[in-house]
Amino acid sequence: MALAPRAETWAADEAVTHLFTAHYRPLVRLATLLLHESGAAEEIVQDAYVALHGRWRRLRDADKALAYLRATVVNRSRSALRHRKVVDRHLAMSSPEPDAPSAEAGALALLQHAAVVAALRGLPNRQREALVLRYYLDLSEADIAETMGCSRGAVKSHCSRGMAALRETLERAS
Amino acid sequence: MSRDEDVLRRILEAEAARVEVSPDALRSIRARTERRPRWFSLGAVALTAATATAAVVGAFALIPRESAPPDPRTASTPSWSSTFSGTSTANLAIYYVGDDQGRQRLYREFHHLPMRDTSTVTKIGTAVTEMLRPESAHDPQYASAWPTGVRVTDVSISGGTVTVNLSKAPPSTIARQELVWTVAAVVGGDPTVKLLVDGSQYATLRKAPALDTLAALWLINPQHGETVARDVSLHVAGAVFEATAHLKVRQGDVVIDERVLTLSIGAPARGEAKLTLTLAPGEYTLEAYTISAADGSVQHLDDHVVTVR
Questions:
Q1: Closest residue of A to B16, CA-based?
Q2: Does A156 touch chain B (CB under 8 A)?
Q3: Which of A99, B47, B132, B193 is deepest in the core (most CB within 10 A)?
Q4: Taking the model in full, what pTM does it have?
Q5: SS3 A118
Q6: Residues of A in contact with B16 (CB under 8 A)
Q7: Tens of pLDDT, residues B223-267
Q8: ipTM of this complex > 0.90?
Q9: Which chain B residues are Cβ-neighbours of A164 within 8 angstroms?
Q10: Residue-range domains of chain B with CATH
């Protein structure tokens, strides 16, 4: 990143501004993919920036700061999901299936796209995290391990199990 | 790359592209990071704490019934402020939420607080009021998980159960735990905390396991913002791998002292270590942390800025 060399001289406010410009939108998108809801996603990402502000003095490095933001977003999304599971279970009993795209709204492709997103949503949290970090953010195995706070071996197994679970839906979508 | 991976990549990309962000996000973040200055003396903190406590106690009606059955006369009478003299004080443990490796975990501070008497209910009421007071944490990296404006309206104890009546419900699991651990620090052990919101039963709470709730490592002493004598007593506690923690003393970017601490017991149990360092007068940053066995990175850092006089 072009801004990185000067990062150590930034004050906390400056760091937040620079890192906001460079990463806010992708982080909100990451949280949305993990949570399937953009309102809570923005809240979580903003919390992460506030936490980063308090921590900047120790980090003083744009790459470390980004790694910290990512890990914070993944962790807090996971907690938010854990919280919501209970609520969702109640909703599932009372409401019909969530809005699948109607036939006129789009082609078969859209339906298949929605099926993959739904299948991703049905995965265990860790598997979904590993897949999103790998295929959306294009992170290396080492970076995924750091973000998720687990070993590289665990990342490998989350990815391969997640892919195996999605395989059938993906093949229909391709 | 396999075809499946390609498809997944494309779908995630398309799904993400639909997400837009709010235009004033940076402003909301800034509003939350504009906090009080990091530098202040402990004297100033104690004074603020005393003033603020005195200001809120008007709304704080305590009903002492620790050993006696509830007395309708006391139940309807004294508001704290009418009898508040500030002559009694106690050093109370207050729990706050801080960030530990991206997770929300509890940290503990001791606050020296004035109060009407030193009964257990008064201590609980005072500790919870302090916990709820915005920006009351000495360390700006800790904060209460409760929203502003929540009041303690009643505290009572019966057997092993502490009943606390608050004006608002807890916003999160960590907020509930912050309350339970603060109450438990006064009464000791693992009490049942019955939470009422505006007088109606809201939840019955117990401490969640320390390992999932408390930050892995605490620098207990000295506290953030404290002014201490030259022989500085350090107290570190935590549940850390192989009972090993590190301590660094910095002045700006200059490292004055660095050592490895062996806590009394390793994770999952919570161990502690105490030591005394002699430091020349000045301002120091004390950092307690662990080093990741996987990649050598600094983890679970808790740091306090202190003044040696």
A1: A29
A2: no
A3: B132
A4: 0.51
A5: helix
A6: 26, 29-30, 32-33, 136
A7: 888 889 999 999 999 999 889 999 999 987 788 899 999 999 888
A8: no
A9: none
A10: 42-211 (no CATH), 216-308 (2.60.40.10)
